[in-house]
Structure formats: structure tokens, C-alpha cells
């Protein structure tokens, strides 16, 4: 009871303190002569302090040029909308936020080809300028057979778009008007010729082509073209292509297709280029139906176009939930709970994941060296762009939940959902922390996760899965189960016949 004694002692001490405090306060209150003196002295002290403060404040104000400060602030407020591109809703090309950049710096920086002004002229990226000029020359040479002044017309057209294109960048473009026009023109012609050479017969590419005939260069250019910081506005590509495209070219690009506008032809050529290299791992046989979507006509740049193709026409994901979040177990845990996996269709986009009657249906995709960089740049774009739905970020979150170990990769590969070009350990690490440091307010897979978790709580699917795993995992185990079943049936028949005889 030492604790109790200590508390009592403390209480006694507190009582003495309060008694002493009350006594002293009583003396102060009843001692009226002293009260008068105290009030008088306090009043004098306050007057002196106030006078001293006013004197000091007036002295300090004499050293401040209030008019200059007001003028500077007024100028800053007047120019804030026009000078700060981060405040503009028209921006679509951004520098990667530092909080995302630090996770994997190599995923956001081009290795050989600079596209646009943000990385133009940087060390290690100047050697490929000659390749871009060569492609531009090939494009102009082919078109100049019918238009000898095509280069001049291109310069005029891009000059008309220069100011609007400059506003697409969220950071100041540190190039003069003429320099910026040249960058847009060279890079735009390079991309158009690159897409055309892939979409047209081999006769369009020469034997000494610096890109088409070098596997390492193809891998590099494929990766560099989807980086967020390495973009030019799609309107620049659209304008240049409309000037260099002729209707009879479409027969070379798409022999069995119906006539299309130059915009749709360019879109299909771009998607075909990335399909060949498996950047997204999609089967774009449905590209004609997807092109009917108005979203394709609103693409801001190549990365945005690829994002639109990933989303596809997935209407099931309209309206994410802002209030609730619910996660699901990993792929291996779901198998143990009796959930089955099935390779889905990409007709509605890669995000169209479904769950019904214990079957989780996931559209297929490819994992290779560029997969992490691709998803990271998609997520960065969604984080930066004005009012951009976090569709890809949600998808990355779901994959991160499903894939925790190499065993999860093996399970998804077994069902044809993943085509893995890496070893399972490295592939499983790609999705670890892929969406870390992102701010997401909506979750489009809440209903799906709720259905999966509800199914996992049922006992019968789990028992059935355990029984199948333990007794039908190998040919010998299956044979033993069949043998046991035959013995059981024979024993049952013998029992029935014995009963009948009696």
C-alpha cells in the first residue's frame, strides 16, 4: 500500500499549498492601502511600457518601404496565373514529382532519345539527334515528290501551334521560339516516320536504317517514347501527319480496312508500333471498335494515348468509391480459399477484371524490363494531370495486392494471365511499392474486392480446395483416390447384396 500512502501525502501537501495560497490571497484582498499602491504602480508601468512599444514600433516602421512591398506583392498576384504553368489546367506534360522520382530515378529518364524540350540537349542524348534528322529527311523526301515546299509549310504550321504547344508543359520551356519550333518539327517528323516505317511494307525501310535493323535501338526507342517527361503534344503529330499523309498510303498500312481520317490512321499506327513490342501486352485486334470512342480524339500525347487504350471501353469501372477501401488476399492465398483464376478478354481493356461464381477473370499482360517504367510513368501522369481518374493507379494497387511472392507470379503464369519474360523473383518485385507515395481518393475495384472476400469466407470452397490440393496434386495421388473409390463402391455393393440375401 505504498502507492496509497504516497498519494495521501501528496494530497496533504496540496491542501497545505491551497491553504497558504488562500491565506495570502486574503491578505492581499483585505489590505486596501497596499492595493491602492499596487494599482498605481501597475498603471505607471503599463503606461511606460506602452509608450516604449509605440516608440519602438514607430522607429521600426520608418525603416520599411510599405509602398515598395505593396507594389511587389501586387505585381506577383497579377502575374501568378500567367507565369506559373503549374496553375494551368491545360498542362499535360509534367516533370515527375520528386516524391515519385526518388523511388526509381531510371524509370523516368530517357536513355537515348529525347522527345520534346525537357531533356533536349542533355548529355548522353545528343548522339541520336542525327538519327532523328535522318528520319525527318526520309519523310520530307517522300512527300516532296508531290509538294516541293513541304518543309516551309511544316515550319509555318508548327509556328502557328508554338504558343499553344508551349502551354502544354507544366514547367517553363527554356528555349526561344525558333528553337522550340525546330524541336517540335524534328521530333514530330521522327515519330511519324518511325510509326510509318513499322506500319508500311519493308520497302519503306532501307537496309542501313539506323533503328529498324538494330534490335537494341528498337528496345531503347520503345521505352523512351512512353516517358512522361519525354513527350510532345499530340496536336503537333496530328498536324504534321495530316500534311504528309496521302489516302493511298492507307492501303499500304491497313489493306483490309475501310477509309479512315488521317487522325485515326495515325492513332492506329502508333498503337500498332507499341503492340509489336508488347509494351502493354495487349491484343489490339479490337482497335477499330475502340477508335470509335471519343477519348482517342482527346489524347494529349503518346503516353495519354496508351493510357486510353489500356482503359478501353471499360464501363464497369465508372464511378470509384471515395469512402471505403477493401483489399483482398494474394493469388496463392486465393487459391487456398478455393478461388479459381481465368484468362480474361482484352476487348474492353486490360482493366476489366471480373469475379463471378468463384472465378477471378483477369485480362492478360506481359512483364518485361520496361513494365515497371511504363506503369510508373502512367501513375505519375495520373497524379499530375488535372482531374485525371486514377484508373491505372488502382490497377497497380490491385496487382500489388495479388502479387507478393514468386509463387503468385507462377500461379498467374499457369493460368495464362501473365506472360513473364523475367525470372519470377524479379517479376514479383516490380509490383512492390509501385504506387507508394501516391494520393488516391477513389477505388474502382471496391465491389470486386467485396465479392472476393465474401466468397473466401465460405467454408465449402476452402475445404474443396484443400481436398483437391492434398489428394489430386499428382498422378499417384489421383490413382490412389480412384482405387479407394473403387474399393468403397465394391464394399458398398457387397453390403447391399448381403442385406438382400438375408
Automatic annotation (TrEMBL):
InterPro entries: DUF247_pln (IPR004158). The keyword Transmembrane helix applies. Keywords: Membrane, Transmembrane, Transmembrane helix. The chain crosses the membrane at residues 476-497. PANTHER family: BNAC04G53230D PROTEIN, PTHR31170:SF17. This is Uncharacterized protein. It comes from Rubus argutus. The lineage of its organism: Eukaryota, Viridiplantae, Streptophyta, Embryophyta, Tracheophyta.
Amino acid at each position: 500500500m505504498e502507492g496509497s500512502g504516497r498519494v495521501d501525502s501528496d494530497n496533504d501537501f496540496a491542501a497545505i499549498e491551497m491553504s497558504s495560497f488562500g491565506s495570502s490571497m486574503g491578505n492581499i484582498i483585505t489590505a486596501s492601502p497596499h492595493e491602492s499602491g499596487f494599482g498605481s504602480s501597475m498603471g505607471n508601468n503599463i503606461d511606460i511600457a506602452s509608450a516604449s512599444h509605440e516608440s519602438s514600433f514607430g522607429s521600426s516602421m520608418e525603416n520599411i518601404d510599405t509602398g515598395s512591398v505593396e507594389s511587389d506583392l501586387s505585381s506577383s498576384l497579377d502575374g501568378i496565373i500567367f507565369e506559373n504553368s503549374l496553375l494551368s489546367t491545360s498542362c499535360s506534360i509534367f516533370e515527375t514529382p520528386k516524391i515519385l522520382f526518388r523511388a526509381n530515378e531510371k524509370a523516368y529518364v530517357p536513355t537515348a532519345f529525347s522527345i520534346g524540350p525537357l531533356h533536349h540537349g542533355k548529355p548522353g542524348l545528343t548522339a541520336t539527334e542525327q538519327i532523328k534528322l535522318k528520319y525527318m529527311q526520309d519523310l520530307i523526301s517522300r512527300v516532296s515528290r508531290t509538294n516541293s515546299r513541304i518543309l516551309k509549310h511544316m515550319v509555318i504550321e508548327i509556328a502557328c501551334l508554338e504558343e499553344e504547344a508551349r502551354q502544354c508543359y507544366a514547367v517553363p520551356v527554356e528555349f526561344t521560339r525558333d528553337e522550340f519550333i525546330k524541336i517540335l518539327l524534328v521530333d514530330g517528323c521522327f515519330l511519324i516516320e518511325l510509326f510509318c516505317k513499322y506500319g508500311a511494307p519493308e520497302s519503306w525501310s532501307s537496309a542501313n536504317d539506323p533503328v529498324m535493323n538494330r534490335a537494341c535501338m528498337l528496345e531503347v526507342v520503345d521505352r523512351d517514347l512512353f516517358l512522361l517527361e519525354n513527350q510532345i503534344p499530340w496536336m503537333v503529330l496530328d498536324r504534321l501527319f495530316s500534311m504528309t499523309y496521302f489516302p493511298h498510303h492507307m492501303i499500304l498500312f491497313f489493306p483490309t480496312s475501310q477509309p479512315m481520317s488521317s487522325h485515326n490512321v495515325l492513332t492506329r499506327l502508333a498503337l500498332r508500333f507499341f503492340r509489336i513490342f508488347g509494351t502493354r501486352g495487349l491484343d489490339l485486334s479490337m482497335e477499330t471498335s475502340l477508335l470509335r470512342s471519343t477519348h482517342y480524339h482527346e489524347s494529349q500525347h503518346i503516353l495519354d494515348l496508351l493510357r486510353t487504350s489500356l482503359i478501353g471501353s471499360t464501363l464497369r469501372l465508372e464511378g470509384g468509391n471515395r469512402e471505403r477501401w477493401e483489399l483482398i488476399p494474394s493469388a496463392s492465398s486465393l487459391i487456398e480459399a478455393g478461388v479459381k483464376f481465368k484468362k480474361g478478354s482484352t476487348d474492353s481493356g486490360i482493366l476489366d477484371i471480373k469475379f463471378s461464381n468463384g472465378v477471378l477473370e483477369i485480362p492478360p499482360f506481359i512483364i518485361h524490363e520496361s513494365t515497371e517504367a511504363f506503369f510508373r510513368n502512367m501513375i505519375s501522369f495520373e497524379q499530375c494531370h488535372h482531374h485525371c481518374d486514377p484508373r491505372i493507379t488502382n490497377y497497380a494497387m490491385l496487382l500489388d495486392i495479388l502479387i507478393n511472392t514468386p509463387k503468385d507470379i507462377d500461379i498467374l503464369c499457369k493460368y495464362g494471365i501473365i506472360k513473364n519474360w523475367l525470372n519470377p523473383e524479379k517479376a514479383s518485385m516490380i509490383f512492390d511499392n509501385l504506387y507508394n507515395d501516391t494520393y488516391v481518393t477513389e477505388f474502382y475495384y471496391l465491389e470486386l474486392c467485396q465479392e472476393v472476400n465474401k466468397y473466401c469466407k465460405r467454408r465449402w470452397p476452402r475445404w474443396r480446395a484443400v481436398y483437391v490440393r492434398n489428394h489430386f496434386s499428382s498422378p499417384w495421388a489421383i490413382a490412389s483416390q480412384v482405387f479407394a473409390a473403387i474399393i468403397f463402391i465394391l464394399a458398398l455393393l457387397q453390403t447391399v447384396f448381403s442385406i438382400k440375401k438375408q
